[in-house]
Amino acid sequence: MIDKSKPEQGLFSSEENFCSFFKAVDDMIFVSDEMGNILFTNPALMAVGRVSDRKFTDVNEAFLNKLGFRRDEVIGKTSRELGLFPEQGKQEEIAHELEETGEIGEYTLKVRTKSGELLDGLFSGTLIESQGKRYFLTTMIDLTLQVRAQKKLDQQRELLQVLSHDLKEPLRAIGSYSDLIYLKNRDKLDDSSEKRLHSLKKTARGMQKLVDDLVTITSLGEVASHKPLEIPKLVDEIAQQFYAQYAEISVQEDFPTVIFGESQLKIILKNLLENATKYNDPPRKVRLGYQESPKKDSVAIFVKDNGYGIPEKYRQKIFNMFERLDNHDDSDGTGSGLSFCKRILEANGFKIWLESKEGQGSTFYFTLKKSH
Q1: What's the predicted TM-score (pTM) here?
Q2: What is the mean pLDDT of the chain?
Q3: Which of 219, 245, 265 is the last residue of a domain?
Q4: H helices within the chain, ranges in order?
Q5: Does 239 score more than 80 pLDDT?
Q6: What is the tally of structural domains in the chain?
C-alpha cells in the first residue's frame, strides 16, 4: 500500500486518482518487438518529484522493492542525497533536458541500490503541472539481466570468431596439401590411396563448415530489424549464388510481401532450398509457394521437392542440431541447417514443420506475418 501521508495532494485530479495510477503501473511493463511478440516483462519503477528542488514526493512499490529503500528514506530527498546515480553528470544532463523540453525517452543510466549494487536502467520521463507547480514523473525499466546476458553473448561470439579463424587456417592447409599430393602423385596412387586423399579433403571441408555453423549459432539470438521483404527477390539472389546449376526453382506468382529480418530470412530460405536441391531426384525441381491464413494476416510459405521423402520416424529428429539422416559420400553438410531455421522462427513467434511421403518428396512449411 502507498503511504498517503507523504505524497503531495492534488498532483492529479485527486490523491485517490494519483494512488490508483501508481497502483496500475505497479504491475508490469511489457516490452515487445515490431511483430508484437513479448520479449520480456518487467516491473516499472516510478517516481514523482518537484522540479523546483528535485525532491521526491512519491514513488511506487516497485521502486522501493528494487532499490531496497523504505518510503520514509526516499520522500523529501533528492537522487543525489540518496546516491542513486553514479553517473551524476549524465543524470544532470537528462534532468536539464526534461526541464527544458518537458519530456525524455529511452535514456540508459546506471542506478545504485541502497546496498550498493549497480543496475542498468532504461528511463523515460515527463513534466506535470498541478496547482501552479511543476513535477517530474519518471519511469525506469530494469535491464540489468538483459545487459549482462548480452555482454556474455558478445564475449562468447568474440571468442568463437577468434577460434574460427585459428581453426580454419590449418583446415585449409590440410585441404590444400591433399590437392597438392594428389596432383603430384596421381599417376602413382592406387585406388585405396586416392580414396583416402579425397576422404581427407572432404573431412577438412566438412570441419570448416562446422566451424562456420558454430559461429552462426551465436548470431541466432540477435534481435533483427524487421522490415517488408519480397521473397521472390531473395530467392533469385540465393539461387544465382548456389543452386541455379543444380535444380529448377519455380516461385508462385503474386507472392505477398512479408515482415521479417532480412539476414535471418535469407538463412531460412538458403537452408530450405539447399536441402530441397541436395536431396532431390532428377529432374531436380523445387517449388516455392504460399498459403494465406483465414484472417489473411499471415502466410505459410512452403518449399517442395520431388526427392525420396523422409520417413515419419525422422520428421522431428531432423530439426535437432547437427542431425543428419543421409550417408551420402558427396554430402559435406553438418546437419545444422534445419535447426537454424527452427530456432530463428520460434524465437520470433513462428513455426516450421514438414509433410512428406516416401518416394514422393517433402514439403517444408514456415509461417510469417504479411506486410499490410
Answers
A1: 0.50
A2: 79
A3: 219
A4: 15-25, 61-67, 71-74, 79-82, 88-101, 144-185, 191-219, 231-238, 262-278, 337-347
A5: no
A6: 3
Q: What is the DSSP letter of 10?
A: T
The three-class DSSP label of residue 148 is: helix
Cα–Cα distance for residue pair 38/41, rounded to 1 Å? 8
Segment (H or E) for 281: none
SS3 65: helix
Of 119, 142, 165, the last residue of a domain is: 142
Q: Are residues 200 and 237 in the same domain?
A: no
Q: Which pLDDT value is given to residue 29? A: 47
Does the pLDDT of residue 279 top 80, yes or no?
A: no
Asked if the structure places residue 209 within a domain, the reply is yes
What interhelical angle do 231-238 and 262-278 show, nearest 10?
A: 60
Measured CA to CA, the distance from residue 155 to residue 153 in angstroms comes to 5
Looking at the structure, tell me whether residues 22 and 35 fall in a common domain.
yes
Please choose, from the candidates 10, 109, 123, the residue with its C-alpha nearest in 3D space to the C-alpha of residue 58: 10
* Top-confidence residue, 32 or 260: 260
Q: Is residue 10 part of a domain?
A: no
Do 81 and 150 sit in the same domain of this protein?
no
Give the domain range for residue 203. Answer: 144-219
- Give pLDDT tens digits for 113-131: 999 999 999 999 999 888 8
25 Cβ partners below 8 Å, 6+ apart? Answer: 44, 46, 60, 139
Judge whether 96 lies within some domain: yes
Using the structure block, give the residue that is written with the C-alpha cell 544532463: 93
Q: Beta strands 38-42 and 29-32: pairing type?
A: antiparallel
Residues 247, 288 within the same domain? yes
Alpha-carbon distance of 165 to 21, in angstroms, equals 55
Split at pLDDT 50, 70, 90, the class of 36 is: very low
